[in-house]
């Protein structure tokens, strides 16, 4: 660290700055600032005429009056020609301000006092509005310079002291949004949600894009290298570093303005793009409700990995609670959408999904999910296309039938919360298979039924399909007969050894065409029959059977002209028939080719 000797106005390098007593300057830069080289050089001709030199001289003068031998001024105490020194200074700056004996905040645009004017209070000689208009409150770097020092003296454009930080905490809090407790003691930063701290910087500006992130390092107690030229990536890196140090989910509580025609990105990653997106987070608080407690999360090469509860929301959307509350008491939540590459944030302009969290039958089991860190505008368009030609499956089962398992193939296309098969590329032919296990229970009867639901879309015809069969396990496991077991020669559209890449699209089309041309491959209804014969006495026998029927029905939906989806309802019933004739009638519905395992 370089300090200025307040007697000689020369630079002195110190290795342990915290063993020195020094004053520090906080100001907004002008175009005529002095540099490290200006002060270091023995030739100072013309330097003393610079505006920046007068600020240096005045800082040293007041410091001497305070009995301080040293001072620090950012414009000339950092050798910016050395990237290593600049990086060290930026990473240390909060601590340097925090350990200063006194900070002089020079408000160059705060006019001299008008003794004839009306002042708002006797303890603070300016109106709140006049104070608020100072450029010092709009700059990125001065945020930490307000929070870190214990003692700040405010000076107007004539270097007249107008107040001290301790004497105007209420006004400072109103102007900046920073809580009274943090202004009073910077150690209270650790109790403040990340989103709230971000909100303090939401409207502040810096000359360089990267500095919007770098100026916040001290506020979040983060250290990271400086890479000027990285642009908005700097703020992304800052958030990643914060995520490694805390499990505070308010890091993800940002929002964007409601979309317009010029800005209409529907899907985003979990990280914000600038502090401005936290502008509405000033009043967010941590929830005191037990099930809203913060979850552990981590960064991976697939995005943010988090174990969390998901709540059903709109079609193809989920809600994740962040364990926070707005000032109104409304839970803070984000909407998520499943894609082939993990989850993304949906509707990034909203944080209010309280009804989804509080509604009946919405609580889900814990899921371990990966949420992408960022989504580009091009990727946003690609995700919208994945919703196009997706298949949503609705299971409409009575109380006697229960959905036990769904095994998707391929599994990365399956959204288990909304029972939706996504489209990997809606411009190409596609197919997917669900291996479904449904249990049936009625009194002493208990049986598992195995189904295979196969859906897809054929590019050449533009037609979708949904077919239903008894799976291979059905013929082996169900003690009875099955109508419509999956034919052995049904095209293998999703097998592990099948590769339908770009070079194989024509072959894939040919395989799909057999489904449309062969009636054996177009079943939509499956019957399971399980018969029993009871011996009542030597000459009387009673015959009964349980019949399970399953039916798949597909409808095309087009709520959005650019997004067509297909809804497949899988309904079922379980009934009991008694008597030889009724049982025979039930079996008559099963083709002779079915395996009759009646016992």
TrEMBL record:
Matching InterPro entries: DUF8212 (IPR058525), HET (IPR010730)
Residue ranges occupied by any Heterokaryon incompatibility domain in the UniProt entry: 22-111
Domain named DUF8212: residues: 233-285
Membrane-crossing residue ranges in chain numbering: none
Family matches, as PANTHER family: HET DOMAIN-CONTAINING PROTEIN
Protein name: HET domain-containing protein
